[in-house]
Amino acid sequence: KLPSLALQPVITPELIHGRVHLKCAYSHPSAKPPLGYVVVWSRLSAPGKKEQIQQDTTLQSFSYVEMDGVNLRLGDTVFCTVTAFPRDTPEQQSLPEESKGFYAGIKFLPESLQIAEDGKEHVLTILSTVPVACPEHDDSCKITLQLSTEDLGKNSRLPGPPNIALSACRVDLLRAPCSESSCAAATLMVTAVTDFAQDGNRVSRIRAEPVGRRDVLWRAYTPKDVKVTVRDLPTGNCYSFTDPHIITFDGWRYDNYKIGTFLLCRSMSRAFEVHVRQWDCGGDHSATACNCGVAAR
């Protein structure tokens, strides 16, 4: 056996002749006699289980594998394992060194969201870890993703009201130079729907599907869903009832026996207000008004 050589293999994506390849690069010790390398490519076929897809014997300090959509597909986690040997005595081999797993496909950052019904916007970044090829006769180097949401409520057979809102229904991942595991990226805003209902914490998911791509690599690929947990917040209430007794949001109580149209409630921070119309319903002996109409914006 040769001693450990600290080859430190690393996988990076590259576009070669318009096709996506992965490159396994490793350090090249200046050893005497000169070295050769065996590079084994594998993919994660099940949790904790790897499947070999290619083996190269090379004198170079790198090896390539193509993402052809058959042996290697988007959504795969890929590894390369490198073993060195002296060229004149190939039976002497170093200990194999394995790269970190490289996930090839669409990633969401963060991978899951926990938000509250407070109106705040949350940034969701969508990125591709592999470069985007330009289709033939088309210079638009982008992946278009169609976005949808689904509420995973207590009774999923009955579709409830939407639980989250997205700032866009489609996003384009435009090709850019690959850096820090991103070769194309876009951002999206996610907001919890304020539904004024005490319906507990609910879970939704965001789904992204590539559209308009004809190439084998992207056509059969659907990225993993993003799980979004929405924390229910208590809702404020105000009331106007019978001969109108009024209870405000903060618990004040008073009466309004007058007849006419009144501004019951107005938000100081958003376009929300409620008007009430009251009419005489007291008869001959008492001056009493009742609600007869309501308008809300």
Feature tags:
23 strands, 5-stranded antiparallel sheet, Immunoglobulin-like, mainly beta, 3 domains, 297 residues
Question: Overview of this structure, please?
Answer:
Strands 9, 10, 11, 12, 13, 14, 15, 16 and 17 form a nine-stranded mixed beta sheet that branches. Strands 3, 4, 6, 7 and 8 form a five-stranded antiparallel beta sheet that branches. Strands 1-2-5 form a three-stranded antiparallel beta sheet, with no helix packed on it. The chain contains one helix and 23 strands. With 297 residues, it is an all-beta fold. The protein folds into three domains: 96 residues, Immunoglobulins (Immunoglobulin-like, Sandwich); 126 residues, Sandwich (Immunoglobulin-like); 58 residues, no CATH class. InterPro entries: Dev_Signal_Modulators, Ig_VWDE, VWF_type-D.
**CATH architecture grouping of the largest domain:** Sandwich
Number of strands: 23
Helical residue percent? Answer: under 10%
β-strand percent reads: over 45%
Briefly say what this structure is:
With 297 residues, the protein is mostly beta strands. The protein has one helix and 23 strands.
